[in-house]
Design a protein that fits this description.
Helix content of chain A: under 10%
Strand content of chain A: over 45%
Number of strands of chain A: 18
Largest sheet of chain B: 6 strands, antiparallel, barrel
Structural class of chain A: mainly beta
Shape of chain A: globular
Largest sheet of chain A: 14 strands, antiparallel
Order of helices and strands of chain B: EEEEEHEEEEEEEEE
Radius of gyration of chain A: 22 Å
Mean pLDDT of chain A: 83
Largest interface: A-B, 28 and 49 residues
Structural class of chain B: mainly beta
Strand content of chain B: over 45%
Oligomer: heterodimer
Strand order of the largest sheet of chain B: 1-2-5-8-7-6
Radius of gyration of chain B: 22 Å
Helix content of chain B: under 10%
Distance between the termini of chain A: 54 Å
Shape of chain B: globular
Number of helices of chain A: 2
Mean pLDDT of chain B: 88
Number of helices of chain B: 1
């Protein structure tokens, strides 16, 4: 035993590619067992009563050239390894039939932008193989997005109002295709459409005008929201995210006596796209 | 008799205790209103002999051949707790398999005896039996047997009983008047079945019953099954799903 396992002894690989900039990872495993009750005895044994569905999620600093975006719509395998010995011996949590549920980017004033991924895995999960020897991580040089590099367009009439935070989330639904005899094996889930893109914006309001509910429903005035990260004033964006035809879904305001003491509106926009190609276009900042 | 509870009322059929999740036993007869000329009063008269019904749903711990073999004139006895019957004939037997659920069989019996309230209680289910599970069981036999969402198997029989004059429940004998085995397969891999030409000598259908960890505990096989109908269904949330129904008479 080495005692506690610290973050620098942990590594995450998705589809064989090491994920860089990882700030945290978590997983859960549930056997889905339920009691079997039989006449004459009552409780008899425990048996799985539902699909073996397990969650894996991780957070990272935002990387402009994130390799994970290439894995969004396919089946992903994951390997979270942690050193358990001084000679590089390790244990691992593995999954082999994961699907990305959500992919989001979050940025707020004064913060480094972060990316969050949640994966749902069907089938076997856990230490299903043998541990590998972990070597020290080596990363290529990457651009890390900061709030000072973020520009927003398409919101309000111009680029007005004081955006204090923004979160862009893609939610990918799936058609589950559980078949007889394949509880621990691969399933053939497919991406179902539409794919949802949510954009949440918090603004320190100055001249912001809250539209009425009726006008939002009857005259929604869809917005083509765009978020671009520019590296220290560069002309071309390092990465852009689109939310085309977004309609305001909900809004709220907060007014409290605190550090800023100002009025804050939280706005939530939502749009849908019909194909994975359109979703990738949104992810790459290309118009659709 | 003490109170009957789920925990103290084992279900047995032909002396074999089943891992039952539910069971019921009943008997009934029918009456009609009878009026007569010149009489003010109305009589209530029976129009049928008493008929008993027994049904049970239980988890499969083997291939259940002792029950599936009860086709034709095979008189059955059974009990729910201390309430039992003799002279039963199996009318339906079915198995349903779904991907992530324990496999259960359902059985229905008509019986022509009175309910016996002094029947032996029977042994409580013994522990440690393997249970068939849809997570690892494998249907096969058809060329289009992949991606199956559900599989069902059913035996259905009909009988005409013969009674003795002067006796309420004196069953002399019975004759089977109908018998069929049907299978219904449903799944995304079955769409190819739509090009069936309804010809040929029939298909074989097999079900390998396995525990959740893949150990085989029995098989069910039928040959000469004919495709009776096939269809393709489409809905907004799901991919196309094919359904095939097969039948064999006996």
């Amino acid at each position: 035993m080495n005692g506690r396992i610290l973050y620098n002894a942990e590594r995450l690989f998705i589809n064989g590619v090491e994920m860089s900039g990882v700030q945290g990872a978590s997983s859960s495993l549930d056997t889905q067992k339920a009691p079997l009750l039989v006449a004459g005895t009552g409780f008899y044994c425990q048996q799985p009563s539902g699909p073996l569905s397990n969650q894996f999620s991780f957070d990272r600093v935002f990387l402009a050239n994130d390799p994970y975006t290439g894995f969004l719509f396919g089946e992903v395998t994951g390997y979270f390894g942690y050193e358990t010995g001084s000679n590089g011996e390790s244990q691992q949590v593995e999954f082999h039939h994961g699907r990305t549920q959500t992919y989001s980017i979050k940025c707020s004033v004064g913060q480094v932008a972060t990316t969050s991924v949640s994966i749902e895995n069907y089938g076997d999960f856990g230490a299903t193989g043998t541990g590998i020897i972990l070597s020290e991580a080596t990363y290529p040089e990457v651009y890390i997005g900061k709030s000072s590099d973020l520009r927003i367009s398409g919101f309000s009439e111009g680029e007005s109002n004081r955006v204090s935070s923004v979160e862009w989330t893609m939610t990918i639904p799936y058609t589950s295709n559980q078949t007889i005899g394949t509880m621990f094996g691969p399933d053939s889930r497919r991406v179902s459409t539409p794919i949802t893109i949510d954009t949440s914006i918090s603004i320190d309001a100055d001249d912001f005008r809250q539209e009425s509910l009726q006008s939002l429903i009857c005259d929604p005035s869809p917005k083509n929201l765009k978020f671009s990260f520019f590296d220290c004033g560069e002309v071309s964006a390092e990465r852009t995210f689109n939310s085309p035809r977004s309609e305001l879904k909900s809004s709220s305001f907060r007014s409290e006596i605190g550090s800023n003491g100002n009025l804050i509106f939280d706005l939530s926009f939502r749009t849908f796209v019909n194909t994975t190609g359109e979703a990738m276009a949104c992810l790459n900042g290309v118009g659709i | 008799m003490s109170d009957i509870t789920f925990q103290n009322a084992p279900i047995w059929i032909n002396g074999v205790t089943k891992l039952a999740s539910q069971a019921s036993i009943s008997e009934k007869t029918t009456f009609e209103r009878r009026e007569e000329l010149g009489l003010q009063s109305v009589k209530t008269v029976p129009t049928s002999r008493p008929l008993g019904s027994f049904s049970a749903t239980y988890y499969l711990s083997d291939d259940d051949s002792d029950i599936r073999g009860l086709t034709g004139i095979n008189f059955i006895s059974g009990a729910v707790g201390g309430y039992g019957f003799y002279s039963g004939l199996m009318t339906t037997y079915s198995i349903n398999v779904e991907p992530n659920a324990v496999i259960q069989a359902s059985l229905a019996i008509d019986f022509y005896s009175k309910i016996n309230r002094e029947m032996a209680t029977g042994a409580s289910p013994t522990g440690g039996l393997d249970i068939a599970h849809g997570g690892a069981s494998i249907p096969s036999g058809l060329s289009f047997n992949t991606g199956m969402h559900s599989f069902s198997y059913e035996i259905s029989q009909a009988f005409t009983p013969f009674f003795q004059i002067g006796s309420v429940t004196g069953l002399i004998s019975a004759e089977r008047t109908d018998g069929s085995i049907t299978c219904s397969l449903n799944g995304s891999g079955l769409a190819d079945a739509l090009d069936s030409n309804f010809c040929g000598s029939g298909s074989g259908v097999n079900l390998s019953l396995r525990t959740v960890c893949g150990d085989e505990i029995g098989t069910i096989s039928e040959t000469g099954m004919q495709i009776a109908d096939c269809r393709l269904s489409l809905s907004a949330e799901n991919e196309a799903v094919g359904t095939i129904n097969l039948i064999k008479y006996f």
